[in-house]
Amino acid sequence: MRASIRRLLLCPLGGIALLSGCAGQREVAVAPPPAPVRVQPVPQPLPPMGATATMQIPPIGADGLRVTPNRDLSGPATLWHMRMALNVAALSCQGNGDAARLQYNALLARHRAALTRANAQVEGEYKAQFGGGAIAQRERLNTIVYNFFALPPAQAAFCAEAVRVGATVNSLPTDQLLAYAPTGLAALEKPFTDFFDAYARYQTDLAAWRSGRTLAMAPVVLEVRLSRADLIADDGVTVPKGAMPRLLARAD
Predict the structure, then answer these.
(1) How far apart are CA 216 and CA 197, in angstroms?
(2) Angle 73-79-83 (CA atoms, 0-180°, nearest 5)?
(3) Mind listing the pLDDT tens digit for each residue in 74-127?
(4) Segment of 40-49, 156-165, 217-226 carrying the highest mean pLDDT
(5) Is the pTM here over 0.90, yes or no?
(6) CB neighbour burial string for 221-241, b if at least 16 within 10 angstroms, e if fewer
(7) pLDDT band at residue 143, thresholds of 50, 70 and 90?
(8) Exposure check for the chain: N or C terminus, fewer CB within 10 A?
């Protein structure tokens, strides 16, 4: 008898099982080895949202938040950055019946006094900090902010959020605009921080792929159903009548 054959001793039952009746009666079901498992190659991870593969994203600060040009702002500067974000939306978001542009124009008309006051206060902040270089420094930061909100991969989500924020600011009394600005700016920035987080995950996956490590995959369960022809009888061992065993092999 081959060592691979598993012996099963079956005792006939006839009211009372007789130990002596078990001798010589053996049945076995032997499964052939499972077919080799084909390992599918892990595809190379791709950047999210159609981004390029060589982007640099803002790092995460000590407080766990992305370091963006919208951090550590005064109240007036927060309002001004929200206005700049909605200005970008007015220029680049063409869907929803041109809603972003119409809302931005309504914002300028409805809240002109509050925006003029915020602009003057921000101007004073720059003069106090940079003196004669205030204008150049502010123009430099404005360019950074406009480019931040114009980042292509996040535009679809940003435009949708800009329409929601635009509707909210145009429903507010002017004296509540400054208080709402941190909430509005955070909502407008979120599509971009979500994209940065997705891009960071892509970079991690790409590094793992390049190092040859297998990315997390669900285990594959192979189920082999044996026919009666697959069962082997040898040395007087009988094939169980009507048997149809199942072999489950797990490939992890």
Answers:
(1) 19
(2) 125
(3) 999 999 999 999 999 999 998 778 999 999 999 999 999 999 999 999 999 999
(4) 156-165
(5) no
(6) eeeeebeeeebeeeeebeeee
(7) very high
(8) C
Distance CA 190, CA 154 (A): 9
Which amino acid is present at 243?
Answer: A
Give me the torsion for CA of 130, 133, 135, 140, rounded to 10°: -90
DSSP states of 198-246: HHHHHHHHHHHHHHTPPPP-PPEEEEEEPPGGG----TTPBPPTT---E
Share of the chain above pLDDT 90, in %: 65
User: What amino acid occupies position 89?
Assistant: A
Higher local confidence (pLDDT), 38 or 3: 38
